[in-house]
Amino acid sequence: MPATLLKAFFDETFVIPNPVQPDPSDPSRLIPYVGPPLTVGGELNKLATNLGQGRNWAGIHWRSDAASSLPHAEQVAFALLRDEKATFAESFDGFELSRFDGTRVHI
C-alpha cells in the first residue's frame, strides 16, 4: 500500500538522474548505473516486490501470500485515495498513477 500511495503523490514517471550501483570488483565504491532508465514508479514497484519476497525467503509467508498481497494492498490504497479526494475543499482533478501491472488509473 505505501508504494501505491507514494506513486499517487509523486511523479512516478520521473527518471532518476545519475543513478549509481556498487562496483562488482570493490563493493565499497559506487559506479554509474548502466542500463534502462530508472523511474520513481519502477523503483517503488521493485521495493514493494522485494519486501514481499523477503518475507518469503525468511519463511514468514508463502509465495502466494506475497503475490496476492500487492493487488489487495493496491485496492486498499485506492479506497483510501478516494476517501482523501472526497475531503478536499478545493478543486482537485484526482490522482493519476499506475497499477503494479502497468495500467493507468485515475482516482
Quick rundown:
The chain has 107 residues and is of the alpha+beta class. It contains three helices and four strands; from the N terminus they run αββααββ.
Explain this structure to me?
By secondary structure, this protein is of the alpha+beta class. It has helices at 2-9, 40-57, 63-87; strands at 20-23, 26-32, 96-98, 104-106. The strands form 2 sheets. The protein has a two-stranded antiparallel sheet with strand order 1-2. Strand 1 and strand 2 (26-32) form a beta hairpin. The longest helix has 25 residues, at 63-87. It is flat.
The proportion of strand residues reads 15-25%
Uncertain stretches: none
Give the helices and strands as they follow along the chain.
HEEHHEE
N- and C-termini, Cα separation: 15 Å
Question: How many domains, in number, for the residues?
Answer: 1
Structural class: alpha+beta
Keywords:
3 helices; two-stranded antiparallel ribbon; flat; alpha+beta
Topology:
Blueprint: H1 2-9, E1 20-23, E2 26-32, H2 40-57, H3 63-87, E3 96-98, E4 104-106
Antiparallel strand pairs: 1-2, 3-4
Helix pairs in contact: 1-2, 1-3, 2-3
